[in-house]
């Protein structure tokens, strides 16, 4: 609610209260009989009650519209947050998949290198055995 609408509500409330008080003062100081005065007071009371019911109904309709709007906006925000969360999850999955693919590639490369080193070590061991056997035969 804007500041201007608050001023209107204050003005209307003051106008209503001032009208009621003015009417009561007029009735109290008017030269009428007690019965006439009571009847007029009852009528004015009924009018004031009807006005109050009218203002209450307006306020209730306006507050319902505001609450409905707030719920709708909250629902839209929730949907947007869920959408962004789903996108973030998908990006995380994509990053993890890329990292996993790189890790698998690195493991395979490491296995190949280990195999080469093992073969080289085995060849070196075989060569050392042969060289040792030749040296032993010479002795």
Task: Give a quick precis of the structure.
This protein has one domain (3-138).
How does this structure look, described?
The chain is mainly alpha-helical and 139 residues long. The chain has one domain (3-138). It contains 2 helices and no strands. α1 (3-29) packs antiparallel against α2 (34-138). 0% of the residues are buried. The model has no long low-confidence stretch (mean pLDDT 84).
Distance between the termini: 110 Å
User: Helix amount, in percent?
Assistant: over 70%
Task: Return residue spans where pLDDT drops below 50 for at least 5 consecutive residues.
Answer: none
What is the mean pLDDT?
Answer: 84
Helix count from the secondary structure assignment: 2
Oligomer: single chain
Order of helices and strands: HH
| Secondary structural class | mainly alpha
Protein traits:
95% helix; mainly alpha; 139 residues
Mind sketching the topology for me?
Layout: H1 3-29, H2 34-138
Helix pairs in contact: 1-2
């Amino acid at each position: 609610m804007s500041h201007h609408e608050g001023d209107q509500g204050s003005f209307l409330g003051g106008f209503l209260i001032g009208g009621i008080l003015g009417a009561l003062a007029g009735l109290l100081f008017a030269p009428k009989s007690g019965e006439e005065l009571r009847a007029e007071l009852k009528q004015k009371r009924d009018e004031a009650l009807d006005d109050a019911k009218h203002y209450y109904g307006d306020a209730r309709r306006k507050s319902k519209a505001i609450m409905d709007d707030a719920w709708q906006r909250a629902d839209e925000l929730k949907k947007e947050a869920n959408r962004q969360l789903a996108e973030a999850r998908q990006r995380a999955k994509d990053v993890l998949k890329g990292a996993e693919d790189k890790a698998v590639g690195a493991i395979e490369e490491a296995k190949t290198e280990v195999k080469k080193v093992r073969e080289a070590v085995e060849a070196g061991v075989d060569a050392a055995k042969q060289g040792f056997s030749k040296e032993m035969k010479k002795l």
